[in-house]
Fold:
Amino acid sequence: MGHRHRTIWAALVLFASLATIAGACSSSGSKSTSTTSGAAPTTSAGGAPTSAASTKPFTFGMLLVGPYNDHGWSQANYEAGQYVVQKLGGPSKAKLIFLDKVNSSDRPSTKPEDVITSMINQGAQLVIATSDDFKDSIIAAAKQHPNVPMVWSSGDSAWSAGKDYQSSITNLANYYMKMEYMQETAGCAAALTTQTGKIGVVGPLINDETRRFVNAAYLGAKYCWTTYRNQPASSLGFNVKWIGFWFNIPGTTLDPTQVTNDLFNSGADVVMDHLDTTEALVRTQQLSQAGKKVWAVGYDYKDTCSVAPSICLGVAFFNWGPGYLKIAQSVMNGTFKAGFTWDSPDWTNVNNTDTSPVGFLKGQALSSDNEATLTKFMAGLGNGSINLFQGPLNWQDGSTYLPAGQTASDAQIWYSGQLLQGVTGASKS
Structure:
């Protein structure tokens, strides 16, 4: 996720914002409860405190780039925080401090690093910055508070092979998941369903992450279009239109509802939502109710299809809870390390919310025949018989991405400099 520069707080704004943070702790889904500071207890293997003298709850902080109830990225992270609280024994054993809508539009005077400092002052023993949007701030905060474990979700600062590797920072870990598999699955569902052979993607901003997710969706669509529907790859239309940020900011981004209209007006009959929010699905259902044969694929949050069930083919979702729980437990038992984790699906059951970091929930609009085919496709991804990041593949400008027979390395997938040949839309902002 891209980042923006923010202005320095004036004193009154600082105190007002810190008061907001103090009221933003939750343990059960409501937005306001009190916070409690305390030293980290030691734990058993299951994460439960072992010392009878350790009565103060484990407290952790979380920064959300969007609303905590956005039915997308931020809600998925927020509910993961609630999951951690539950698994550590409930509010008497663990507490979450969070602040949502930490972005330059909703909180133009808020510096995330100051929010982090406030959380630490309230007792946070771990701070999770849940967006690449917080890149500069979490790095600055980690340097400022070298004894407090922190996590930059989706970043690469702790990856020794990463472009943003920060070798001097020993308290900042990275955590992300291999969503590429679920985007391939989402693309397959779209290709199995489309009747026009044209698929649209409502994209956020343009960076390595968003390009690789679009590329993964395209590869899944192309495979299923050619393999299961026996159509030539050249007859598949795959078009992405970017709005300019992770969610709609009136007057700054393109309107996702209008972008959805534009994609359908250009001939697409399936739209894939890659935003943090659900306007694309809502608009698709409205058009369906008006008589158009259109469908959509959701993203980010496991219950996304609920906003538009009649047209939803499924949702590729993040399941942050188990990963965050392991990190919290490592802080509690003193084994935390500033490592880079790019978590793989639990292929025995990708929708197991206790074990798999990503999943794909099939929607009611997916036909039974296509559901069976999609299940077969996912099995191939899981056992390795289907590997779509394999050459020959070219970039959009015709240059070679992967020569014939070469399988992409992790770095070649993570750092996607262009969209792939076959995808229509901008590769650069």
